[in-house]
Design a protein that fits this description.
The complex is a heterodimer.
Chain A: H1 7-36, H2 55-62, H3 64-95, H4 102-110, H5 117-127, H6 134-141, H7 155-182, H8 187-195, H9 200-228, H10 232-238, H11 249-258, H12 263-288, H13 293-296
Helix pairs in contact in A: 1-12, 2-12, 3-7, 3-9, 5-10, 7-9, 7-10, 9-12, 11-12
Chain B: H1 3-31, H2 35-38, H3 53-60, H4 78-109, H5 117-127, H6 130-143, H7 150-174, H8 179-186, H9 191-220, H10 223-228, H11 237-241, H12 252-282
Classes of the chains: A mainly alpha, B mainly alpha.
Keywords (chain B): Cell membrane, Membrane, Transmembrane, Transmembrane helix, Transport
Family (chain B): Belongs to the binding-protein-dependent transport system permease family.
InterPro entries (chain B): BP-dep_ABC_trans_perm, MetI-like, MetI-like_sf
Chain lengths: ~300, ~290
């Protein structure tokens, strides 16, 4: 038996799995998260879910730990993103130089991006171990410090270690995107500028930077949103500690849901994160012109 | 470029590369040291006596099947966890890639209502953090009585891999010229024949790039495994190795050896597929 599907049927048939998947894996969990944020839900008593209105939100907004987490998330995101952008652009410019064997350097410098977060967290705990860690040893033998630093049990140092971990893992992201953009800048622009007598610095300021501006803006928005919501990097390195000094909103939501068994409160914190993220996405759409006729077509 | 400029650039690049690779080099060095050397102060940069005992313990440390229950050291589960991670990564990747490829083709070749909103949905889904997905999905798994199964983890990972697979395949198909397909259709080939014989081979690089990203994301995930799974024998590798911290005494040799073994599959994929990876990054499809 041979039957032919019409073009239209094929089109619909191919879309069907996506429509189902978006419903099951995107719309449903988010809708369920919103619903949870309006009920009291203790996972040990799943059948008892009274509607509590805005109580969970009020609880969250009244919780000093929430605001502490929010502030720390800003510190963590700000430092991480700025450092990633600066180091990323610098590295991309370096890797863009026409040198032999550049592919090997590119490969090695992009490598951290694919290393599992658990592995990095384990390595960091070992490198920054206060008793026998190599970082303390190197700093002491170089004479930078006199005594061992308790990296992960001093609040400011724990935050710094976490930021360093984030920068180490995600700077390659910036490098790759910027590098891809650098390769599309027409070389004629540089040739013309050279003829006009522009020096290297001048060429960087007048040609490279303006050409990179758009892609950089997009990368920075992306990195800001992702970094702000990161969970595993901090949780696996410090568990939010010492005390609560490295909590961010994701850890706060996780902690409320799992440790305090207040799924509703955790969900409310999640919905607040989602709203912040929507605001960020609007910014992204504005910055990138994503969805505009000329780009989407 | 003048030779001395090149020399300086090489020196700078070499130094940066060394610093970037140092955490992993240090992990390799530690994993090859005997236990007493690991705890020596000042630490030795490279093991004086190279030993593979940490690797041996992970790979041949006795099987769980022979002695189940309490008293089994976490390291005995290492190979089981490794297999679990492979199963769930491959499983979720197959689902995400299949769904994304079909839809992306349909989106770029047909017109229908609501079409323009799909990329927005993809970009949004791509930004939503796992910590928002994980609890609703977990509660759903509870009501379906699927918790603590590898299947639940496969479904969970589809949440985080599907949006960017769709995004990547959509970007990819937009760049594939439509003329050959049209010619084949005019010659009387059916749409499905065109898809199988013309479109899929052309789309292969995009499919490979998207698959690698998807494999990396699911292999590296910790949160879903942490929330969904309970039994030691069902954990993925990322959640499992954190159990090495359970005892009072932390065995850093074991820890670093498992770090190395966990990174190895990704490193191999990365090495083979670096070109595809960069192509994928260029298309703007990355999750992090």
């Amino acid at each position: 038996m041979k039957f032919r599907l019409s073009d239209r049927q094929v089109g619909v048939l191919f879309m069907l799995p996506l429509i189902i998947a978006v419903g099951v894996f995107l719309v449903w969990p988010i809708a369920e998260a919103v619903r949870l944020s309006f009920v009291r839900y203790n996972p040990l008593r799943p059948d008892d879910q009274p509607f509590v209105g805005l109580d969970n939100y009020l609880f969250v907004l009244d919780d000093p730990l929430f605001w502490e987490s929010f502030y720390q998330a800003l510190v963590w995101t700000g430092w991480s993103t700025v450092l990633q952008a600066l180091i990323g652009v610098g590295l991309a410019l370096l890797l863009h130089q026409p040198l032999k064997g550049m592919n090997a350097f590119r490969g090695l410098l992009l490598f951290p991006y694919i290393v599992p977060t658990v592995v990095i967290a384990l390595n960091w705990r070992w490198l920054f171990n206060s008793e026998i860690g190599i970082v303390n040893h190197l700093l002491m033998s170089a004479g930078v410090i006199d005594e061992r630093i308790a990296w992960l049990s001093t609040p400011s140092m724990a935050m710094a270690s976490a930021i360093l971990l984030n920068v180490w893992k995600y700077t390659p992201f910036v490098v790759i995107v910027v590098l891809a953009r650098l390769q599309t800048i027409p070389t004629e622009l540089y040739d013309a500028a050279k003829v006009d007598g522009a020096g290297a610095l001048r060429r960087f300021r007048d040609i490279t930077l303006p050409q990179l501006a758009e892609v950089l803006a997009v990368v920075i928005v992306f990195r800001t949103i992702w970094t702000f919501n990161k969970f595993e990097e901090i949780y696996l390195l410090t568990r939010g500690g010492p005390g609560t000094s490295t909590y961010n909103l994701a850890l706060y939501a996780f902690d409320q849901s799992i440790a305090n068994l207040r799924m509703g409160v955790g969900a409310a914190a999640g919905v607040i994160m989602l709203l912040l993220l929507l605001a960020g996405s609007m910014l992204y759409i504005r910055v990138s012109g994503f969805g505009r006729e000329d780009k989407a077509a | 470029m003048r030779p001395w400029v090149a020399a300086i650039l090489y020196a700078v690049l070499g130094a940066i590369t060394f610093v970037v690779c140092f955490p992993l080099l240090w992990a390799i060095s530690t994993s090859l040291k005997p236990k007493d050397e690991i705890f020596r102060w000042p630490p030795t940069l490279w093991p004086e006596n190279i030993t593979f005992e940490s690797y041996h313990e992970l790979l041949f440390g006795g099987s769980v099947a022979s002695a189940p229950g309490a008293g089994v050291p976490p390291s005995a589960y290492f190979l089981t966890w490794f297999a679990n991670s492979i199963i769930v990564s491959v499983g979720s990747t197959i689902i995400s890639i299949t769904v994304a490829t079909l839809a992306a083709y349909s989106l770029t070749r047909f017109r229908f209502w609501g079409q323009r909103s799909v990329p927005y949905i993809a970009i949004l889904g791509y930004m939503v953090p796992s910590v928002i997905f994980v609890f609703p999905m977990f509660l759903t798994m509870v009501s379906l009585e699927l918790t603590d199964t590898l299947f639940s983890l496969i479904l969970g990972y589809v949440c985080i891999t599907l949006p960017f697979c769709l995004w990547l395949m959509w970007a990819f198909f937009r760049g594939v010229p439509i003329e050959i397909e049209e010619a084949a259709l005019v010659d009387g080939a059916s749409r499905l024949q065109v898809f199988r014989q013309i479109v899929l081979p052309v789309a292969l690089p995009g499919i490979i790039a998207a698959s690698i990203f998807s494999l990396i994301v699911s292999w590296n995930d910790y949160l879903f495994g942490r929330v969904f799974m309970n039994s030691m024998e069902n954990l993925p590798l990322t959640v499992g190795v954190m159990h090495f911290f359970d005892g009072t005494h932390v065995d850093w040799g074991l820890m670093m050896a498992s770090s190395v073994l966990m990174t190895l599959p990704m490193a191999i994929l990365f090495g083979f597929m670096q070109r595809h990876l960069v192509a994928g990054f260029g298309a703007g499809a990355v999750k992090g």
